[in-house]
Write a structure and sequence with these properties.
By secondary structure, this protein is an alpha/beta fold. It has 9 helices and 8 strands. Helix 3 crosses helix 9 and helix 4 packs across helix 5.
Length: about 300
């Protein structure tokens, strides 16, 4: 059985997720029901947090910056928050981004990208690409070093980060690293882990995952590398990758399969499975010691890629 988190978190945060009937569920109903676990989501860190707005594709795009203490210029990490493509915000991962900024010695930028279904594919990932290009071009304005760029994301944000990394390789935009934290990569939803952990492993079920994909992808979407690099004809030149999975997660096998694809393409790949854990366990930061350890390990991999460790 998966690691048991504090009972109050399970009861108050995840108690309804397993009973959701996605047949008639709306995005607004889900957003009302689901509240990400707070834990100590805003640990006290020597990191400065501020918001900036840039010109986005659909209007002003908010970017949340996490800047470590010390003298810059600092490496830059673009972090895409998770939330099933249709929920969440930079605030959802404040604690994770702050910890990475502090421990890896980099500026973390988290875009408040547009969400499905109001803005389906490719709106959100295009916002993140816009943010990455802006960070590269305007690094000097916020103390960043655009020769040390990386991308990261959790869950659906991990999908965005993987798509951005492939797109950057094709565009000739060098990245030092990509961190994919239990990423959602396969809209086919048919791996062995998808069947094995379909129900009962909060907060993600097979039915809910399929619903997320339906909200994100219009019915006539061509499933190709723009949706997920799993469908790329070549992964040559993609940035080195650190992939994290959780044992009791429907998304586990698709992420681990992608790791093998990258290895076969000659991409430097680190795959780390956290046994005993469920999808989203990093949000237990401050509540579960291994969540803190997992964030620290990912930050250490990033620091090594940046040369700040």
């Amino acid at each position: 059985m998966p690691l048991r988190y504090p009972s109050d978190i399970i009861v108050e945060t995840y108690r309804l997720i397993g009973d959701l009937d996605c047949t008639h569920l709306t995005a607004d109903q889900y957003r009302t029901i689901f509240r990400a676990p707070e834990g100590s989501a805003a640990p006290v860190l020597p990191v400065r947090t501020e918001d900036r707005f840039i010109d986005g594709i659909g209007g002003p795009l908010r970017l949340r910056f996490y800047t470590p203490s010390g003298a810059g210029p600092f490496p830059i990490l673009l972090y895409c928050h998770g939330g099933g493509f249709m929920n969440g915000s930079p605030e959802s991962t404040d604690g994770i981004c702050g910890a990475i900024a502090d421990q890896a010695g980099c500026i973390v930028i988290s875009p408040d990208y547009r969400l499905a279904p109001e803005t389906p594919f490719p709106g959100g990932v295009e916002d993140c690409w816009r943010a990455l290009l802006w960070a590269r071009d305007q690094a000097g304005s916020f103390g960043g070093d655009n020769t040390h760029l990386a991308v990261a994301g959790d869950s659906s944000g991990g999908n965005f980060a993987a798509v951005l990394a492939l797109r950057a390789a094709v565009a000739g935009l060098p990245l030092r690293q990509q961190l994919l934290l239990y990423p959602a990569l396969d809209p086919g939803c048919d791996t062995p882990s998808f069947t094995a952990y379909a129900t009962g492993y909060f907060p993600l079920t097979a039915e809910l995952t399929r619903w997320f994909w339906r909200l994100y992808l219009p019915p006539d979407t061509v499933i190709d590398s723009k949706v997920s690099p799993l469908y790329a004809t070549s992964l040559a030149g993609v940035a080195p990758v650190y992939i994290m999975t959780a044992e009791y997660d429907v998304l586990r096998d698709e992420a681990e399969f992608y790791a093998r694809q990258l290895q076969q393409a000659g991409v430097s790949t680190t795959l780390r499975r956290w046994d005993g854990h469920v999808h989203g366990f990093l949000l237990m930061q401050g509540q579960a010691a291994e969540a803190d350890a997992a964030i620290a390990e990912a930050a250490a991999a990033l620091a090594a890629a940046f040369g700040t460790g």
